[in-house]
Amino acid sequence: MKIAVTSQGKELASQVDPRFGRAPYILVVDIDTMNFEALDNSGNAGAFKGAGIQAATMVHDKGAEVVMTGYCGPKAFATLQAAEIKVVSDIAGTVADAIEKFKSGSVTYTTSANADAHW
């Protein structure tokens, strides 16, 4: 299973970035092997609009089944829902911490966006 985690850097030891659409990186992690790919999302950081939709499309294309982030806006959330990707929000700490939290079963899936558009 692949999980996408918003990140401030390219490594599992990097801090989770709280912004889904505008995080500099999104790490797509295979939780069985812990192999990962760091997706450069920096092009969305200054986007006028559509950053969340672009990020959602990117993680879908990489086969992620779950997104872990701090905050997810309404358009990104709707795009992820349409792609049948589950969202876990209010995540902090390192990417590795987030993955371990998921693997231990101590996460709750989000049922709606928890940020305004263009956050």
Note down, in words, how this protein is organized.
There is one protein chain. With 119 residues, the protein is α/β, with parallel strands linked by helices. It has a single domain (2-103), classed as Dinitrogenase iron-molybdenum cofactor biosynthesis domain (Nucleotidyltransferase, domain 5), CATH 3.30.420.130. Helices cover 24% and strands 19% of the residues. It has helices at residues 51-61, 74-82, 95-103; strands spanning 2-7, 25-30, 36-40, 66-68, 86-88. Strands 3-2-1-4-5 form a five-stranded mixed β-sheet, with helices on both faces. Helix 1 (51-61) runs parallel beside helix 2. The longest helix is centred in the middle third of the chain and has 11 residues, at 51-61. The chain is globular, with a radius of gyration of 12 Å. The model has no long low-confidence stretch (mean pLDDT 92).
Q: What does this entry show, briefly?
A:
InterPro entries: Di-Nase_FeMo-co_biosynth, DiNase_FeMo-co_biosyn_sf, MTH1175_dom. The protein contains 3 helices and 5 strands; from the N terminus they run βββαβαβα. With 119 residues, it is of the alpha/beta class.
Give the number of domains.
Answer: 1
**End-to-end distance:** 29 Å
- The average pLDDT value, as a whole number, equals 92
Computed Rg: 12 Å
What name is given to the CATH topology? Nucleotidyltransferase, domain 5
Main attributes of the structure:
119 residues; alpha/beta; Nucleotidyltransferase, domain 5; five-stranded mixed sheet
Detail the topology: elements first, then pairings.
Layout: E1 2-7, E2 25-30, E3 36-40, H1 51-61, E4 66-68, H2 74-82, E5 86-88, H3 95-103
Parallel strand pairs: 1-4, 4-5
Antiparallel strand pairs: 1-2, 2-3
Helix pairs in contact: 1-2
